């Protein structure tokens, strides 16, 4: 890497690390916190996650269009950073008390904060990183790897902290946000004509009509069909910690072991993020997307079929294979098939937004299924749904060509 590439790679990797560290500290044990500290059952927890998803699906199209309009400016990232800073006080002094006072009011306020900060915020940060990576000349997956490491580092200690005092995790989250803001202040906006280069000669200003034109493209809706299928993984993960912790003699032991498992999974995921670009470049974005869907279906079906903590853990660890391939392939598929100016809009709408729509609809149903059918049978139904959508996507997704080379790399002869 040249010095400019190294600088942007280091800073953006750091932003991803501390964003995910903040997110994991406050959210990786949220279902256990809602169950053991707040006293919510599966259906009520499903309502909480549905509220988060509803807010996120409203914020994500807005974040995507705003970030595409801003180009490489950092205004939106500053807003997200300030919200991250408020994480600790919000969970301790606002969210827990509101949920105890009135479930629906707490769900609404929590959905507004968590959805806008984390579930929409990560899409904005990832799409910003992906744009800079194409200009500066590094692979997005290798920067996103540091986000996984941030989540893993926080989760490793989350179980211990939770058993001492759950509030510790929330204060750690706000401390991590301070470092995020310091790093953001060091990121210099790339020169003004860089976005013009990224747009491959299109220098006209992006308009709302450009974004809405996506809705008339059949290939956009083909991508949506695929995302509807794989979005089930978010619903599957929401209350998995409760299911896993129930495999142990005491809740405290289950909490600690889940922290270890989640940390191991995300460390493996980080390695997957480093290796995923090699695989995706070799087999193509479409085939990589389908492969991630197959692994996801196997993981969810397997979780419903196997018994015991060890085998359930093995199924959980497949997420470290599936997610890196999915994220890297998604950005490469978007850049190969759509207008690069709209990459943030496409990622936040075509992937994140659709994921949250699915989550908002399925979260209460999943919670009801956990209460009535049990976790295992509900997982089997989820896995069958993913399998059906992946099979349909084999016909709908387009074969893609390789994206253009990075714009700040030295020319080769």
Structure description:
With 413 residues, the protein is mainly alpha-helical. The chain has one domain: Growth Hormone, Chain: A (Up-down Bundle). 82% of the residues lie in helices and 0% in strands. It has 20 helices and no strands. The protein has helices at residues 3-27, 30-38, 42-70, 75-85, 87-101, 103-119, 121-136, 140-164, 167-186, 194-198, 208-212, 218-230, 232-238, 240-245, 251-283, 285-305, 309-317, 319-337, 343-372, 375-396. Helix 1 (3-27) runs antiparallel to helix 7 (121-136), helix 4 (75-85) packs across helix 6 and helix 12 packs antiparallel against helix 20 (375-396). The two termini are 18 Å apart.
- CATH topology call: Growth Hormone, Chain: A
Number of strands: 0
Number of continuous helical runs: 20
Mean pLDDT: 82
Query: Percent helix among the residues?
Result: over 70%
Beta-strand content: under 5%
Overall number of domains: 1
CATH architecture: Up-down Bundle
Output the CATH class name: Mainly Alpha
Unreliable spans? 192-196, 199-203, 402-413
Alpha-beta content class: mainly alpha
Radius of gyration: 20 Å
Summarize the structure.
Residues 9-401 form the Major facilitator superfamily (MFS) profile domain. This protein is mostly helical.
Break the fold down into its secondary structure elements and pairings.
Elements (H helix, E strand, L loop, with lengths): L2 H25 L2 H9 L3 H29 L4 H11 L1 H15 L1 H17 L1 H16 L3 H25 L2 H20 L7 H5 L9 H5 L5 H13 L1 H7 L1 H6 L5 H33 L1 H21 L3 H9 L1 H19 L5 H30 L2 H22 L17
Helix pairs in contact: 1-7, 1-8, 1-9, 3-6, 3-7, 3-19, 4-6, 4-9, 5-6, 5-9, 7-19, 8-15, 12-19, 12-20, 13-19, 15-16, 15-18, 16-17, 16-18, 16-20, 18-19, 19-20
């Amino acid at each position: 890497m040249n010095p400019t590439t190294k600088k942007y790679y280091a800073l953006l990797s750091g932003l991803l690390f501390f964003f995910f560290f903040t997110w994991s500290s406050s959210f990786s044990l949220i279902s256990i916190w809602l169950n053991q500290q707040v006293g919510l059952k599966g259906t009520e927890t499903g309502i909480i996650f549905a509220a988060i998803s509803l807010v996120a699906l409203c914020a994500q199209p807005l974040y995507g269009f705003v970030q595409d309009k801003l180009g490489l400016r950092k205004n939106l990232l500053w807003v997200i950073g300030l919200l991250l800073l408020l994480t600790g006080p919000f969970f301790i002094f606002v969210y827990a008390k509101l949920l105890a006072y009135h479930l629906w009011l707490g769900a609404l306020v929590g959905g507004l904060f968590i959805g806008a900060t984390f579930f929409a915020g990560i899409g904005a940060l990832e799409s910003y990183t992906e744009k800079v990576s194409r200009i500066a000349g590094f692979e997005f997956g290798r920067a996103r790897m540091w986000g996984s490491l941030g989540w893993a580092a926080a989760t490793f200690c989350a179980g211990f902290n939770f058993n001492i005092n759950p509030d510790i995790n929330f204060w750690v989250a706000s401390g991590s946000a301070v470092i995020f803001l310091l790093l953001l202040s060091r990121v210099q906006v790339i020169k003004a004509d860089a976005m013009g280069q990224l747009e491959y000669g299109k220098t006209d200003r992006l308009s709302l009509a450009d974004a809405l034109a996506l809705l008339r493209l059949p290939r956009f809706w083909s991508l949506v069909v695929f995302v509807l299928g794989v979005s089930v993984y978010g619903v599957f993960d929401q209350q998995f910690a409760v299911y896993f912790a129930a495999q142990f003699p005491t809740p405290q032991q289950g909490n600690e072991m889940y922290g270890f498992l989640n940390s191991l999974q995300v460390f493996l995921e980080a390695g997957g993020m480093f290796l995923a670009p090699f695989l995706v470049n070799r087999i193509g974005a479409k085939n990589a997307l389908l492969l991630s869907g197959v692994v996801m279906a196997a993981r969810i079906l397997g979780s419903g079929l196997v018994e015991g903590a060890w085998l359930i853990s093995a199924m959980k660890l497949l997420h470290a294979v599936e997610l890196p391939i999915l994220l890297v392939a998604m950005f490469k598929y978007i850049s190969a098939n759509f207008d690069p100016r709209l990459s943030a809009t496409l990622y936040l709408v075509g992937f994140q937004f659709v994921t949250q729509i699915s989550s908002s609809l399925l979260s209460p149903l999943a919670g009801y299924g956990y209460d009535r059918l049990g976790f295992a049978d509900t997982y089997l139904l989820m896995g069958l749904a993913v399998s059906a959508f992946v099979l349909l996507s084999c016909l709908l997704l387009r074969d893609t060509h390789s994206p253009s080379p990075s714009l700040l790399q030295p020319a080769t002869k």
